[in-house]
């Protein structure tokens, strides 16, 4: 393995020196990184297996169901104990999928004081539909996507009936939101809908939210999903490529089958699209599946609105509130090497491939082209966590932000994004961490930060009464 890696590296150098294209050389270097990533991942998995096998064999106190001891995080005198809501990303899930492993690698059970909520919302739905579902999951009631939106996008106006995980949610009883990946976009869309008083019968405003924390969220879009590789043009969504069609047809098939058994593990939450054989009948569902007449493709009302054009259009509508704390954690696990931006071998193998394809094919005309950006800006669009570029993660374009390192420890301003960078790939801070101890410490510190924020004036007034 080591000899083959050095052979690839030497061959790449010879190819580049002989005057061949940078793309050819980059492909060979990417192959080298991929091989290193597989070797590293295999070694880690093998060492973990040996470690746990040794514990099971030699330790009388070892419990198979609890291989990791989780520390319960608390602060001596928290300033608030508002619920903390974890919002998953694309293809994610909440605690309702009881047969699935934890999307957050157990972070839901780390805090001993605050109530941690992890609702399930549409894993591949649009930011709007996910935000609406998130509201009703917390507040309770029948999901109402809005009359105008539903007619424009071609799906039913109403969805499922929700009991409400936090039925007292209001300005007096706000919540903290923490979103990973597309979960951050969902939170900001909900922020906008609260400000617009979108929900009938509820007098909402952004003060219903105490704090927003985004983790590797594509709040400025992902260039790779804006490129011709997926079927996008300069003006936005045009038509899906072959790869995109294969993926969406698979989703359509899963929605059509609507298997009730595995729904505890997989639930696309497509009931409002009416794609199931239970809703259309077997013959009607099959005809729809063969024609692939899913209105989401015409309206763009699904998770592919994460492309740069759509995302920046949506985020322009989000006005920052002087009553809310905003935090953004950007992730990066790429390096500069011989003039190339390469994924680190510490990145997961699948993300190494995605990162390489994103750099090769993912700088679309919608961003003006690489030649129209200065070196620093271009580097921010190329460096990433394997999925989302740094520039795409920081905060919505036009919003004020400050680096956390430049703030005094005692200063936590509202109405401005506080940005910090962590070294991780896209999945390392969610459900696939290499170091579970560091992962739990990260979320434990997040919870402490939420509880250390001063309570809302309105809730403080109620407490004094």
Automatic annotation (TrEMBL):
<feature type="domain" description="Lipase-like C-terminal">
    <location>
        <begin position="80"/>
        <end position="426"/>
    </location>
</feature>
<feature type="transmembrane region" description="Helical">
    <location>
        <begin position="27"/>
        <end position="47"/>
    </location>
</feature>
<keyword id="KW-0732">Signal</keyword>
<dbReference type="GO" id="GO:0006629">
    <property type="term" value="P:lipid metabolic process"/>
</dbReference>
<keyword id="KW-0812">Transmembrane</keyword>
<protein>
    <recommendedName>
        <fullName>Lipase-like C-terminal domain-containing protein</fullName>
    </recommendedName>
</protein>
<keyword id="KW-1133">Transmembrane helix</keyword>
<keyword id="KW-0472">Membrane</keyword>
<dbReference type="InterPro" id="IPR056304">
    <property type="entry name" value="Lip-like_C"/>
</dbReference>
<dbReference type="GO" id="GO:0005576">
    <property type="term" value="C:extracellular region"/>
</dbReference>
<feature type="signal peptide">
    <location>
        <begin position="1"/>
        <end position="17"/>
    </location>
</feature>
<dbReference type="GO" id="GO:0016787">
    <property type="term" value="F:hydrolase activity"/>
</dbReference>
<dbReference type="InterPro" id="IPR029058">
    <property type="entry name" value="AB_hydrolase_fold"/>
</dbReference>
<keyword id="KW-0443">Lipid metabolism</keyword>
<dbReference type="Pfam" id="PF24708">
    <property type="entry name" value="Lip_C"/>
</dbReference>
<keyword id="KW-0378">Hydrolase</keyword>
<keyword id="KW-0964">Secreted</keyword>
């Amino acid at each position: 393995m080591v000899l083959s890696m050095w052979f690839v590296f030497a061959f790449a150098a010879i190819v580049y020196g002989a005057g061949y294209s940078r793309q050819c050389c980059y492909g060979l270097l990417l192959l080298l990184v991929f091989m290193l990533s597989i070797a590293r991942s295999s070694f880690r998995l093998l060492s973990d297996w040996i470690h746990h096998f040794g514990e099971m064999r030699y330790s009388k106190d070892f419990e198979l169901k609890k291989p990791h001891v989780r520390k319960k995080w608390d602060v001596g005198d928290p300033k608030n104990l508002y619920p903390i809501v974890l919002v998953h990303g694309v293809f994610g899930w909440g605690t309702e999928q009881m047969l699935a492993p934890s999307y957050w690698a157990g972070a839901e059970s780390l805090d001993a004081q605050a109530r941690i909520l992890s609702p399930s919302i549409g894993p591949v739905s649009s930011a709007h539909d996910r935000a609406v579902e998130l509201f009703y999951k917390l507040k309770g009631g029948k999901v109402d996507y809005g009359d105008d939106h539903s007619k424009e996008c071609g799906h039913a106006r109403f969805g499922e009936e929700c009991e409400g995980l936090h039925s007292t949610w209001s300005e007096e009883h706000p919540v903290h939101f923490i979103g990973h990946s597309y979960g951050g976009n969902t939170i900001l869309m909900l922020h906008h809908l609260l400000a617009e008083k979108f929900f009938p019968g509820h007098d909402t405003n952004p003060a219903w939210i105490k704090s927003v924390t985004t983790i590797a969220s594509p709040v400025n879009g992902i260039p790779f999903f804006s490129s011709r590789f997926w079927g996008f043009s300069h003006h936005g969504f045009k038509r899906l490529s072959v790869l995109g069609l294969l993926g969406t047809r698979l989703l359509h098939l899963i929605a059509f089958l609507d298997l009730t058994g595995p729904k505890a593990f997989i639930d696309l939450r497509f009931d409002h699209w009416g794609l199931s054989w239970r809703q259309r009948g077997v013959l009607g569902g099959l005809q729809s599946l063969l024609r692939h007449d899913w209105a989401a493709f015409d309206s763009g009302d699904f998770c592919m609105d994460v492309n740069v054009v759509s995302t920046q259009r949506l985020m322009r509508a989000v006005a920052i509130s002087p009553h809310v704390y905003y935090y953004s954690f950007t992730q990066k696990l790429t390096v500069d090497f011989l003039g190339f931006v390469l994924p680190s071998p510490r990145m997961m193998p699948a993300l190494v491939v995605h990162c390489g394809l994103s750099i090769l094919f993912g700088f679309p005309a919608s961003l003006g082209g690489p030649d129209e950006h200065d070196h620093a800006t271009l580097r921010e669009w190329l460096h990433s966590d394997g999925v989302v570029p740094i520039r795409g993660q920081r905060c919505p374009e036009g919003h004020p932000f400050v680096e956390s390192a430049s703030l005094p420890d005692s200063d936590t301003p509202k109405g401005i994004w506080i940005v910090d960078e962590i070294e991780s790939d896209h999945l390392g801070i969610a459900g696939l961490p290499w170091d579970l101890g560091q992962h739990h410490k990260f979320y434990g510190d997040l919870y402490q930060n939420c509880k250390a924020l001063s309570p809302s004036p309105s809730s403080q007034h109620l407490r004094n009464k």
